[in-house]
UniProtKB/TrEMBL annotation, chain A:
Annotated residues for binding of FAD: 207, 232-233, 246-250, 263-270, 284
UniProt keyword terms in alphabetical order: Electron transport, FAD, Flavoprotein, Transport
Molecular function in Gene Ontology: electron transfer activity; flavin adenine dinucleotide binding
Protein known as: Electron transfer flavoprotein subunit alpha
Gene, per the UniProt record: etfA_7
Cofactor, free-text remark: Binds 1 FAD per dimer.
PANTHER family: ELECTRON TRANSFER FLAVOPROTEIN ALPHA, ELECTRON TRANSFER FLAVOPROTEIN SUBUNIT ALPHA, MITOCHONDRIAL
Organism of derivation: Pseudomonas fluorescens
Subunit structure of this chain's protein: Heterodimer of an alpha and a beta subunit.
Keyword rRNA-binding attached: no
Job description of the protein: The electron transfer flavoprotein serves as a specific electron acceptor for other dehydrogenases. It transfers the electrons to the main respiratory chain via ETF-ubiquinone oxidoreductase (ETF dehydrogenase).
InterPro entries attached to this UniProt entry: DHS-like_NAD/FAD-binding_dom (IPR029035), ETF_a/b_N (IPR014730), ETF_a/FixB (IPR001308), ETF_alpha_N (IPR033947), ETF_asu_C (IPR014731), ETF_asu_C_CS (IPR018206), Rossmann-like_a/b/a_fold (IPR014729)
GO biological process: fatty acid beta-oxidation using acyl-CoA dehydrogenase
Automatic annotation (TrEMBL), chain B:
Identification of the protein by name: Electron transfer flavoprotein subunit beta
Function noted in UniProt: The electron transfer flavoprotein serves as a specific electron acceptor for other dehydrogenases. It transfers the electrons to the main respiratory chain via ETF-ubiquinone oxidoreductase (ETF dehydrogenase).
CC cofactor: AMP
GO biological process, one term: carboxylic acid catabolic process
Lineage, opening ranks: Bacteria, Pseudomonadati, Pseudomonadota, Gammaproteobacteria, Pseudomonadales
GO molecular function list: electron transfer activity
Domain Electron transfer flavoprotein alpha/beta-subunit N-terminal: 39-227
SMART domains reported for this sequence: ETF
UniProt subunit comment: Heterodimer of an alpha and a beta subunit.
Length: 314, 265
């Protein structure tokens, strides 16, 4: 058995391409399946990412497809590459990041196999668990596909070490350019705070924040705790904060050591994105809010009094 | 590009721009589902069913494109049980012109649905196909991408904005780091994210009118594609319950608990 993992990467605050942390969780899932692990880095000018990939513990080989056609991981060009390379593998894995979710189903369809999305555990080489219905049920799914195509929910697997490996690096010459799509531009959030899905502590705000400006209270708390800042769908829909901060069923899935939900009522869709956090704190002035049902520590209070006090005393 | 500056040419394109929208009948988003005692699935008996919220956004976007004079016709399609006609009628009430139900009593995988939709795409030849990015039952987030692969079209997934100009659609996508815009050659596939639009409600007169709009029913079998799956659901269980928490009376008590009991700060 040999497993192909698609490496994901993004840009850091200095505009350098860096390996996405979720790649380490995906390699961990591959290690649980067992067998040799190869990593594919597809993009343009991805030498630094490939170098980082070769250092990941447990990776035997890194395939680098460095070609202008793969810039920005355009799926119309990357998917045929992955499908072509993937035919020789028992499994193709990608993190359930926006890139992984965009690319992998296209690969699965090209290979004519069903995909298994967002696994949270590996039961055996062909059987996996995944949440359905916003995490209100857990399905155990078995695949008899010749190549098993799977996205991995990072929170289900502890990351492997980013260093300690010494994989061989091999260039892939294949250039697929479908010629039907092109990159126009991007607006990426720049923040010095930890990335939401990798942070040990997450502070999230909901409709109770009342406006975007009030999120400054959460930023102050986050900076005190070394935390990332998230938001409920209600806060994003209301325009308080941008979409990349949304935690929930269809936003980001987080499972930090500590999740502090502030002014969040606790809709099913939000709970789906954070209920696997180790410790959950809910601060809400409505004592009936459903968020208290999943909280380890609940505090009924006016957040505009409680949060500044928390900043001073935490 | 020849012809793009030619107004007559552009009008011709817009007049013939058909949009296909795929919708799914799912358990209503407000329902908290329960797992069946025999672990075969979730209990959907007597549960409220609705159009998948992301599909509502897909229908709304098509209707807006028609209202702007960009689209000429909206065909809505669903792959599902006979009862999915209800959701198709809803889409017709919201502004779709006609509907197609690809009827199947089976629980089909995303790939099977994509294959059936591909047959509809081949027959209808839309310039644009809009789907929800994800159904809130299976949470797969696959069908649009798979349909794009099978059709050989570009895909603008997780769209928060679309802009059609001539032969091209610019799609702004919600991605992990923020927003990304790609340009796709038409025909293309778009899957909707939450911020693309805010769907309207169907008015009573439009609900009445929708009853007279054409709704064609074909069986999945009649479309002649294999819907066999490489996946088997072995069992479905309830998630592990969280142990009950406690209410604290003050910020000071909270800080004390987080430091000394939970040891997380």
């Amino acid at each position: 058995m040999t497993i192909l993992v698609i490496a994901d990467y993004s840009k850091d605050a200095q505009d350098n391409k860096v390996l996405a942390p979720a790649t380490l969780n995906t390699v961990a899932a591959a290690a649980k399946i067992g067998g040799e692990i190869h990593l594919l880095v597809a993009g343009a000018f991805v030498g630094a990412v490939a170098e980082a990939a070769a250092n990941i513990a447990g990776v035997a080989k890194v395939l680098v497809a460095d070609n202008a056609a793969y810039a920005h991981q355009l799926t119309e060009n990357v998917a045929p590459l992955v499908a072509e390379l993937g035919k020789g593998y028992s499994h193709i894995l990608a993190a359930a990041t926006s890139n992984g979710k965009n690319i992998l189903p296209r690969v699965a369809a090209q290979l004519d196999v069903d995909q298994i999305s967002e696994i949270i555990s590996v039961e055996s080489a062909d059987t996996f668990k995944r949440p359905i219905y916003a995490g209100n049920a857990i399905a155990t799914v078995q695949s008899n596909a010749s190549v098993k195509v799977i996205t991995v929910r990072a929170t289900g697997f502890d990351p492997v070490a980013a260093v300690g490996g010494s994989a061989s690096v091999e260039a892939v010459a294949a250039a697929h350019d479908a010629g039907i799509s092109s990159f126009v531009g991007e607006e990426l959030a720049k923040s010095d705070r930890p990335e939401l899905t990798a942070a040990k502590i997450v502070v999230s705000g909901g409709r109770g924040m009342q406006n975007g400006d009030n999120f400054k209270h959460l930023y102050a708390l986050a900076d005190k705790l070394g935390a990332a800042v998230g938001a409920s769908r209600a806060a994003v829909d209301a325009g308080f904060v941008p979409n990349d901060m949304q935690v929930g069923q269809t936003g980001k899935i987080v499972a930090p050591q500590l999740y502090i939900a502030v002014g969040i009522s606790g809709a099913i869709q939000h709970l789906a994105g954070m209920k696997d956090s180790k410790v959950i704190v809910a601060i809400n002035k409505d004592e009936e809010a459903p968020i208290f049902q999943v909280a380890d520590y609940g505090l009924v209070a006016d957040l505009f009094e409680a949060i500044p006090e928390l900043v001073l005393t935490a | 590009m020849a012809g793009v500056s030619d107004c007559t040419f552009l009008t011709m394109i817009s007049e013939s721009m058909k949009i296909l929208v795929a919708v799914k009948r799912v358990v209503d988003y407000n329902v908290k589902v329960r797992v069946k005692a025999d672990h075969s699935g979730v209990d959907l008996a007597n549960v409220k069913m609705s159009m998948n919220p992301f599909c509502e956004i897909a229908v709304e976007e098509a209707v807006r494109l028609k209202e702007q004079g960009i689209a000429s016709e909206i065909v809505v399609v669903s792959v599902g049980p006979s009862t999915a006609q209800e959701q198709l009628r809803t889409a017709l009430a919201l502004g779709a012109d006609r509907a197609i139900l690809v009827e199947s009593a089976e629980d089909l995988t995303s790939l099977a649905v994509a294959k059936l939709l591909k047959v509809v795409v081949d027959k209808e030849q839309p310039r644009l196909v809009i789907l929800g990015k994800q159904a809130i039952d299976s949470d797969n987030n696959q069908t649009g991408q798979m349909l794009a692969a099978l059709s050989g079209y570009g895909q603008g997934t997780f769209a928060s904005k679309v802009d059609i100009s001539g032969d091209t659609i610019a799609v702004t996508r919600e991605v992990d780091g923020g927003a990304q815009t790609v340009a796709l050659k038409l025909p293309a596939i778009v899957t909707t994210d939450l911020r693309l639009n805010e769907p309207r409600y169907a008015s009573l007169p439009n609900i009445m009118k929708a009853k007279k709009k054409p709704l064609e029913v074909v069986t999945a079998d009649a479309l002649g594609v294999s819907t066999a799956s490489t996946n088997t659901t072995v069992k479905v269980e309830a998630p592990a319950a969280r142990s009950a928490g406690i209410m604290v009376k003050s910020v000071a008590e909270l800080v004390e608990k987080l430091k000394n009991e939970a040891k997380v700060i």
